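Q: How would the structure tokens look for this protein?
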Amino acid sequence: MAITDERNWTDTKIVAAIEDDSAYNTREVLKLLPHIIPSPEQAKLRFVTVFFGANDACLPGTSSGQHIPLSEYRHNLVQILRHPSLAAHNARIILITPPPINEYQLESGENEYSIGRRRTVEHTKLYADAARQVGEDLQIVTLDLWEALIRKTKWDPSQTIPGSKAIKESPILREHLRDGMMLHELFNKHLKPANFAHN
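A: Here is the predicted structure in token form.
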């Protein structure tokens, strides 16, 4: 998980990203959130991006232990977005859905944490759909990363989802995902909170 600021906690106004880096999922971050968000007296958050789902969407029973049931994922997202630690700042929050994955890269070992069949694009879609619905229900601005990338593949919803090993590999997903799951830095940098903080 990463809580990153564009300047320093001692600055009067900062932006922060709360995301599922490394092995963290929404269950873990809920435990940690009160300890990693500064109080308004320490610093004033202006913008916060919340980006979870890739780790939660691991298949049940996999050795990583990251899997979170879909209903709990939805609940946890709501709790994160409404957490008193964030509410105290009255910050502008942007929710980001998990992107699609590329099973070809994941299962070839390009992602050191996902060797073997720990994730599927079909299962990950359920978590992207859930995040999108939470954003709609809470009326929070949502960046639909799943839809943005899938649209680039020109996917026909009546067909198998790009990223699945049941069909030919998508060059679009390989171009955008450095290891089958995480965005290449070229694209990831556009998701930094500072890019949303124009005033």
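Confidence is low (pLDDT under 50) at residues 1-15, 193-199.

Residues 121-138 form the longest helix (18 residues).

Upvote if useful.
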